[in-house]
Amino acid sequence: MHRMIAALIFLALLALPASAQQDVERQKIAYLIESVATLQGATFIRNGTEYDAKRAADHMRLKLRFAGSRVKTAEDFITCCGTGSSVSGIQYTIRFHDGRTIDAATFLHGKLAGYEARMASGAH
């Protein structure tokens, strides 16, 4: 089922003009950043230092600006801006209010998959 949804999304993206595809990807990236910014009670751990959700989202926005044209898709954003430190190589993690910890890339990929599934089903 997931492969069929992914294939439909891929085909739909191929049919869009380049500027429309860029808009779709920018919307996905904005959604991912907003998903981070609005996490209640979460702690983001970057290079061993803890940050709240707003500061983590601000950092991702900064990294996005510095990445420039290297980030064309939401997947590029996750890889370049949401996975880990480009300086130390240490992966970013998220500790939720219940103590559960997940790496940021896994969280962002899950959010992206949910967003794409909603868009494919027509639910906005």
Structure notes:
The longest helix has 20 residues, at 18-37. The chain has 124 residues and is α+β, with helices and mostly antiparallel strands. The chain has helices spanning 2-15, 18-37, 53-67, 74-82, 104-121; strands at residues 43-46, 49-51, 93-95, 101-103. The radius of gyration is 15 Å and the shape is globular. A hairpin with a 5-residue loop joins β3 and β4 (101-103). It is 61% helix and 10% strand. α2 packs across α5 (104-121). The chain is built from 5 helices and 4 strands, in the order ααββααββα. The protein starts with a helix and ends with a helix. The chain has one domain. The mean pLDDT is 88. A 4-stranded antiparallel β-sheet has the order 2-1-3-4. Keywords: Signal. This is DUF5329 family protein. It comes from Rhodanobacter umsongensis. Pfam families: DUF5329. Residues 1-20 form the signal peptide.
